[in-house]
Amino acid sequence: MTYFLVKTTRTAQRLCRVFVQTGVLLVWIQPAQAATFALPNAGDSLIDNNQGLPHYVKAQQEDTLIDIAVQHLLGQEEVVRANKKVDRWLPGAGKEVLIPSSYLLPDAPRKGIVINLPEYRIYYYSSATEVLSYAVGIGRVDWKTPLGMTSVVGKTQNPTWTPPASIKEEHRLKGDILPNVWPAGPDNPLGLFAFRLGIPGYLLHSTNKPQGIGMQVSHGCMRLYPKDIESLFQLAPVGTQVNIINQPIKVGWSNGNLYIESHPVLEGEVLTLPQRVEIAAVLIQKALNQQLVSIDAKVLETALKESNGLPTLISNGGVPVEILNLEVPADTPAAVEPNTAVPEVVPAPVIVDVPVAPKSITPAPVIVDVPVAPKSITPAPVIVDRPVIPEPAPKKIVPKVIPKKTVEPKIEIPVKQEKPVKQERVFENSPMPFPSL
Questions:
Q1: What per-residue confidence (pLDDT) applies to 142?
Q2: Cα–Cα distance between 214 and 70 in angstroms, integer?
Q3: Sheet with 249-254: strands ordered across
Q4: Which of 29, 37, 123, 238 is deepest in the core (most CB within 10 A)?
């Protein structure tokens, strides 16, 4: 008898006829289920179902990285980040694609549901010995998923959906008219299962568009694959604690080794490399808890630059080296204490080129080469040589001497009277005289 290994895709469905008509046995490979992990020992954070070995699959001719993500119930961005050198849309037949299979648990209480937005992943602590992990889609930049602590206040199977007016208007502008109430069923945008959270208007639900899992595409709600939400729906009761966090960088232990896991920040947020180094330095110092561990500075820097979302070993097991002491701000979440004992003999201090913040009473900011405007200096008054014009000397006032008027004696001389002569009167500026009247 002939055996074929066939994935449950459209191609596999078309091959059903071959099985019926020719009797060829088809061995179906179901897509991966939500990962279930054993909780690590106290103080450790790494969960891994592949014994620390990378897990690769070979792409088919028609596959995209998004197809592969859906087949393995992983987030789209999660697979793309882990395979930065592989073409997202055309990996090519036979191309090996890395399937993430290990994670560092977030730095949060291991209770209920923890959703870390930058890694598009949910952690559900179902018991004291087990944790389940699911890929999740979250709110886009203009409809951000809120952060904070809440709980499951209701569960609905086969929910209907009443689109809010804002969403109806958004769809109307695109020519897509939504009904006032969307009936229950597999085509419902909420899928077949929904959790109602204590934050009004926000749900944790299934979806009819699985390609959006692991991306910022929703109106704030969080989406899971249909199979994942069905699993979680059966496990998590009403009242389950839900903690929504934003941790793009995680640090944790595993069997005495220190790991870091770095993710890109959410759309609309900015985190520079110096800021990443500063955050990593604080987290590493917390994880060390006065221990002496050798850190590979180059590997650490590469992990922060690439931010591929994969746990990366940063302790190299060499001669113990003291990391510069940093006090942790009070508002930084408490780290899980490692179970590695502090060595009794402290080696001589060794200077190491590790990109961490310098020793100070409070965490010192990372010094970045940024042009800084010089301090303003008030210029001294400038003395200009101007010619000085002397003031004019006051005039000397000389009293005017008025001579006394000499009065001469008046002598009367007799005058012969003549007959008056008639004279003409002349007007000033007149062209011709006028006779006087």
A1: 65
A2: 10
A3: 249-254, 257-262, 312-313
A4: 123
Which residues are designated catalytic?
205, 221
Give residue-wise pLDDT tens across range 321-341: 444 333 334 444 333 333 333
Phi and psi at 74, nearest 5°, equal -110, 165
Q: For residue 139, what are the β-bridge partners? A: 218
In the numeric block, the tokens 């604690």 are attached to 241
More confident call, 407 vs 289: 289
Identify the structural domains of the chain with CATH numbers, from first to last.
1-30 (no CATH), 35-49+101-245 (2.40.440.10), 248-368 (no CATH)
Which runs of E-coded beta strand occur in 255-410? Answer: 257-262, 312-313
259 contacts 65 by C-beta, under 8 angstroms: no
259-286 mean pLDDT = 95
What whole-number distance in Å separates Cα of residue 146 and Cα of residue 64?
A: 31
Measured distance CA(432)–CA(296) in Å, rounded? 125
pLDDT digits (tens, 9 = 90+) for 156-208: 999 987 777 777 777 777 887 777 777 888 888 888 999 999 999 899 999 98
Question: What residue has token string 């549901």?
Answer: 113
The sign of the torsion formed by the CA atoms of 324, 301, 245, 168 equals positive
125 with 131: CB under 8 angstroms? yes
- How far is the C-alpha of 83 from the C-alpha of 97, rounded, in Å? 7
Measure the CA–CA gap between 52 and 365, rounded to whole angstroms.
35
pLDDT value for 256: 92
Are the C-beta atoms of residues 238 and 154 closer than 8 Å to each other? yes
